[in-house]
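Below is a filled-in request sheet from our internal design queue. Each sheet records the structural input a requester submitted and the sequence that came back. We keep these sheets so that new team members can see what a complete request looks like end to end.

REQUESTER: design group, bay 2
PRIORITY: normal
MODE: inverse folding
CHAIN LENGTH: 221
BACKBONE (tokenized):
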């Protein structure tokens, strides 16, 4: 079940963007909420948990995660935090976007099989991202088949990360460092979402409300 939820999140996002009229303000609210919830769970639970494990190089790997996410966003144009800075005119398969999203999704799958709240945070984070990626892809000239293949592979990556972590010993020796890298990724993605959600830094009561809601929900869990 835990393996299926992240895939389900992508499919729900796809379904929403495909079948339901897309109200961009609602999606922006959902995005702001997901950013605040992900940041809160990371800071309140995930980060202290990893620091307690005590390796002195944890901080370095968190910084490495932030740098990795910055590099991934050069490739994806910002898709992991929910928007695109790239052109819709191309009809070639967007390999850089695809690879970047898959690396991001695989890595975020690694810590979530041991941490229920983090699993919820990643699912909440995936729904608006999947809505935005799907509606972007359907506005390009790519064939439907390629788009569905893209979304399926992207959807499978997070469960794959969890599966490899849970059922193999490959990652055992480096799991704590990978977790630290994922913390860096989450810190960068969630703060970017929050930063970009306040357009021109104009106060918006709804956005501020959902940001508070994300924090309170993480505190209540
Ligand atoms: Zn951006
Ligand atoms: Zn993500």
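RETURNED SEQUENCE:
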């Amino acid at each position: 079940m835990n393996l299926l939820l992240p895939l389900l999140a992508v499919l729900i996002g796809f379904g929403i963007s495909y079948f339901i009229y897309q109200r961009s303000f609602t999606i922006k609210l959902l995005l702001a909420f997901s950013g605040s919830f992900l940041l809160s769970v990371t800071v309140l639970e995930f980060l202290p948990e990893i620091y307690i494990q005590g390796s002195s190089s944890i901080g370095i790997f968190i910084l490495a995660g932030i740098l990795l996410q910055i590099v991934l966003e050069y490739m994806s144009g910002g898709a992991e935090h929910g928007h695109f800075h790239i052109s819709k005119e191309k009809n070639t398969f967007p390999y850089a976007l695809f690879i970047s999203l898959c690396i991001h999704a695989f890595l975020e799958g690694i810590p979530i099989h041991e941490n229920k709240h983090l699993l919820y945070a990643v699912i909440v984070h995936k729904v608006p991202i999947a809505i935005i990626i799907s509606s972007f892809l359907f506005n390009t000239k790519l064939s439907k088949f390629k788009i569905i293949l893209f979304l399926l592979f992207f959807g499978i990556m997070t469960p794959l990360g969890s599966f490899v972590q849970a059922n193999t010993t490959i990652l055992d020796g480096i799991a704590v460092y990978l977790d630290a890298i994922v913390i860096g990724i989450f810190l960068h993605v969630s703060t970017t979402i929050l930063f970009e959600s306040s357009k021109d830094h104009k106060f918006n009561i709804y956005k501020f409300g959902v940001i508070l809601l994300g924090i309170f929900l993480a505190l209540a869990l």
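SHEET NOTES:
- Helices lie at 4-19, 24-52, 58-76, 95-112, 116-138, 144-167, 175-197, 205-220.
- Residues 24-52 form the longest helix (29 residues).
FILED BY: M.R.
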